[in-house]
Design a protein that fits this description.
The chain is α/β, with parallel strands linked by helices. It has 2 domains: 42 residues, no CATH class; 243 residues, no CATH class. It contains 13 helices and 12 strands. Strand 5 and strand 6 form a beta hairpin. The radius of gyration is 22 Å and the shape is globular. The mean pLDDT is 86.
C-alpha cells in the first residue's frame, strides 16, 4: 500500500506513475523466480547476503544486459532493421539527416523491451557524416537537437522511465573507419567514411553546442550520455572543439571521456552502461565487409556492436570484513569469482536458448 500511495524511488529516473508501480510489483515475482528456480542455493544466498550483486536479477531469465549499436544497422536497412518482426510498420532507409536521427532515436525505444540495461550508438558522428554534406549549419544544429530531444522524450524503458542511452563521438573519422564504404541517403553507398572528416567535425561541434544549451528551460540532458573519445593528436588538432567540450563540463557536467591518450591504451575503446571494452581493432575490423555481404545474416554480425549479457558486482569491502588475514581475503575473493563466473555462464546458456526459441525477436532477427 505504501508503494501505491507514494510511488517507487528505486532510481533517479523513475517517477510515480501506474507503469512504475506495476513494474515494481511484477519485479518481486521475477526476482523470486530467479532466486528459487534459476540459481542454485549458493548463488542465491550470495546475492541475498550481499557477497555479490546480480544486476537486474528480475530479467535474468529473459534479457541481455546492455548494448551499443552500430548506427549503420538502421541507416542501411531502415526501421526496424529486421524483416522478421511483424508488429511494426517498416520504414525504408532514411533519406535525410533529420529522418536518420529520428530513426536512430526510435530504435532505442523499440529495442528497450529486449534489454535490461543501457543502450546506445558508437561513432555516431562518423556514421552520420555522409548525411551532412551540403546541409546548412542550422539544419545540422537542429538535427542534433532533434536526436537528443527525441531520445529524452521516449518513456519506453522499464517502469515508464526515459531509456538509459548514450552516444559516443569523435571529432574526426578514426583511422580504422576511413576506408570503409559510407552509407548515405536511402541506404546507398556514397564514397568512404574518410571522405567526410569535415562533416564529422561539424556534427561533433553541433552536438556539444546542443548539450551546452540544454532543454527549453536550460536544464541539462542526462540522456543520451555524451561520450567523447580523446587522443593526443586529436586534442592538438581539434583544440577549439575540445575546449568547447570542457565548457560543457563546466556548465553542465554531462560529458563522459573515453581516454585513449596513454601509450598503452588501445586505439579502439567501446563503452556502454558505464562499462568499458578495450578491444584493439578486433571489433571495428568486422565492419569493413561490403554491405551486400551482410544481407541474409544475423543482424548483429559484422557490425561495430558491443555489449554484455549480464553484470555481477563483487563486494570487496565485505570480503575484507569476513577475512582474518590477507591470504584468507584472496581465498574468499577466488571463491566469489568462481561463483560469479558460474552465474555468467548460466546467463549465457539462458540467452542462447531464448534466441533460438524466438523470445528475443529483434535480437535474433535477420536482414533480407
Amino acid at each position: 500500500e505504501a508503494i501505491l500511495e507514494y510511488g517507487v524511488d528505486e532510481n533517479a529516473n523513475l517517477d510515480m506513475n501506474p507503469e512504475s508501480i506495476h513494474h515494481w510489483a511484477a519485479n518481486r515475482i521475477s526476482d523470486e523466480y530467479a532466486l528459487l528456480r534459476l540459481l542454485d542455493s549458493e548463488e542465491a544466498k550470495a546475492h541475498l547476503y550481499g557477497d555479490i550483486h546480480i544486476h537486474m536479477l528480475r530479467y535474468f531469465d529473459l534479457r541481455p544486459f546492455c548494448q551499443e549499436f552500430d548506427p549503420r544497422m538502421i541507416l542501411e536497412n531502415g526501421l526496424p532493421p529486421v524483416d522478421s518482426w511483424p508488429h511494426c510498420s517498416k520504414s525504408g532507409p532514411a533519406g535525410s539527416l533529420r529522418v536518420a536521427v529520428i530513426h536512430l532515436a526510435k530504435w532505442l525505444g523499440i529495442i528497450q523491451g529486449e534489454f535490461s540495461g543501457g543502450l546506445g550508438y558508437d561513432y555516431i558522428t562518423t556514421f552520420l557524416a555522409p548525411y551532412t554534406r551540403g546541409v546548412s549549419e542550422r539544419e545540422i544544429e537542429q538535427s542534433m537537437q532533434c536526436l537528443i530531444f527525441e531520445t529524452n522524450q521516449i518513456f519506453a524503458a522499464r517502469g515508464g522511465q526515459v531509456p538509459f542511452t548514450s552516444i559516443s563521438c569523435t571529432p574526426t573519422v578514426p583511422d580504422g573507419l576511413c576506408d570503409i564504404l559510407a552509407i548515405g541517403a536511402h541506404g546507398k553507398i556514397i564514397g568512404k567514411y574518410g571522405d567526410y572528416k569535415e562533416e564529422c567535425l561539424k556534427l561533433f561541434d553541433a552536438l556539444t553546442d546542443a548539450y551546452i544549451k540544454g532543454d527549453h528551460h536550460g536544464k541539462l540532458f542526462a540522456f543520451p550520455k555524451h561520450e567523447v573519445k580523446i587522443k593526443k593528436e586529436w586534442i592538438k588538432e581539434f583544440e577549439p572543439s575540445y575546449l568547447k567540450v570542457i565548457k560543457e563540463v563546466v556548465e553542465m557536467g554531462t560529458p563522459y571521456f573515453l581516454n585513449m591518450c596513454p601509450d598503452w591504451m588501445s586505439d579502439e575503446i567501446h563503452s556502454q552502461c558505464c562499462r568499458k571494452f578495450l578491444s584493439g581493432n578486433e571489433i571495428i575490423s568486422k565492419s569493413i565487409l561490403d554491405p551486400e555481404q551482410r544481407k541474409n545474416a544475423n543482424i548483429w554480425e559484422n557490425y561495430v556492436t558491443v555489449g554484455s549479457l549480464q553484470s555481477v558486482s563483487l563486494n570487496l569491502p565485505r570480503y575484507a570484513y569476513m577475512a582474518h588475514n590477507e591470504d584468507d581475503y584472496f581465498t574468499i575473493l577466488d571463491e566469489k569469482m568462481e561463483l560469479t563466473a558460474r552465474i555468467l555462464r548460466k546467463k549465457w546458456n539462458i540467452i542462447e536458448k531464448r534466441l533460438k526459441t524466438g523470445h528475443l525477436p529483434l535480437c535474433s532477427g535477420t536482414i533480407k
